[in-house]
Amino acid sequence: MSARRNARPAVKVGAHVRFRGVKWQVVALSGQNIHLIGPDGGGQAVLAGHLFADPGFTVIGADTPQAAPQWGLFESAPAAAREKALAWQRHVREVECGLPGGPGSQGTVRPQYDPEQHTLAQREQAKAEELTALGFGRVSRTTVQRMRLDYRKQGLWGLLDHRTTRASTPTGRADERVVAAVREALRRRRGRSKGTINGLFPLINQILTDRYGPGTVPAPSQATLYRLVIALARPGELPAGPVRPTPASFDGRAFTPTMALRPGEQVQVDTTRLDVLALFDDGTLARPELSIAVDVATRAILAAVLCPSATKAVDAALLLAEMAVPHPARPTWPNILRMDHARTLPHQQLVTLDERLAGAAARPVVLPETIVVDRGKVFVSRAFTAACETLGISVQPAPPHAPTAKGIVERAFGTINVLFCQHLPGYTGSDVTRRGPDTALEACYSVPHLQDLLDEWLVHYHHRPHGGLRHPMMPKKALTPNEMWAALVAVAGYVPVPLTRNDYLELLPVRWQAITAVGIRIHHRTYDHDLLAPYRGQPSPHAGRGGKWEIHYNPHDVRQIWVRLPDGHLTEIGWVHRDHVHRPFNDRTWHHIRTVTLRGNHHGDTDSHEADLADALDQLMRRVHSGHATKTEQALIARTPAAPIPPARRPEHQRAQDADETGQWDEDDSIDDLDDLPDTDPGHPAATGFGLYDAHEEAAKW
Question: What domains, with CATH codes, occur in the chain?
Answer without folding.
Answer: 10-59 (2.30.30.60), 78-159 (no CATH), 267-327+363-475 (3.30.420.10)
